[in-house]
Design a protein that fits this description.
The protein is α/β, with parallel strands linked by helices. The protein is built from 5 helices and 6 strands. Strands 1-2-3-4-5-6 form a 6-stranded parallel β-sheet.
Length: 207
């Protein structure tokens, strides 16, 4: 068991970091075929402006090896109980960087959530097909909140897709200013996405 690889947890810190104090399990965006295809599509979708690609190609290059180990580990096989990380926080983010790679990846995230019932996990993803396929075979963990990331800038998706709890949308500038509820604040001071509540449409100004 000592040779089994462990999942890397990213600890976000800093007064200018949106995810300050919220830890996460992420993967390598730069080797995710889905992410890179979306990033290079040149269709004006939000993925064209991917913060993760910019970070990992620039000032956060040192993160790439650890995130790639997560990509390999989480997508290749089901984690053993010994490999499941014990999360000590009350809220936690899945895929702060990167997207779901396959159904094994999603199953492993579900197992991590079930292994830590005291913690509420939130997963942002555009890959509803993977989620829907998996949840035909298993129950969604009650402490996992699924947030569908809408790729279309300025087109608000109010109703979450099947199995999802919330939608996350981007707008430009002051477009729909009165509806923007995720602009100019840190997650730890809001936590709407990390709670089962009646707020199901999240709208942020595109950075």
């Amino acid at each position: 068991m000592e040779n089994l690889q462990q999942v890397h947890i990213t600890h976000s810190k800093g007064p200018k970091n949106k995810l300050d104090s919220i830890d996460s399990i992420s993967t390598n965006t730069l080797t995710n075929k889905y992410c890179m295809a979306m990033n290079s599509a040149d269709n004006g979708d939000i993925c064209e402006y991917c913060y993760s690609v910019s970070m990992l190609e620039g000032y956060r290059k040192t993160m790439v090896p650890a995130l790639q180990r997560n990509s390999d580990l989480l997508s290749a096989a089901i984690l053993t109980e010994w490999q499941l990380p014990r999360i000590m926080s009350a809220v936690f983010r899945f895929s702060g960087q990167g997207e779901l790679l396959n159904d094994i990846h999603f199953e492993n995230l579900c197992l991590i959530a079930e292994y830590n019932p005291h913690c509420t996990f939130a997963l942002w993803t555009k890959r509803a097909t993977i989620v829907n396929k998996a949840l035909k075979k298993r129950e969604k963990p009650s402490n996992l909140i699924l947030v569908f990331s809408n790729s279309k800038i300025g087109h608000i998706m109010a109703k979450p897709p099947t199995h999802f709890d919330k939608t996350f949308n981007n707008v430009k500038g002051d477009d729909k200013l009165e509806l923007q509820n995720c602009t100019g604040q840190q997650c730890k001071n809001c936590l709407v996405c990390y709670q089962h509540n009646d707020i199901t449409t999240i709208i942020e100004r595109k950075k």
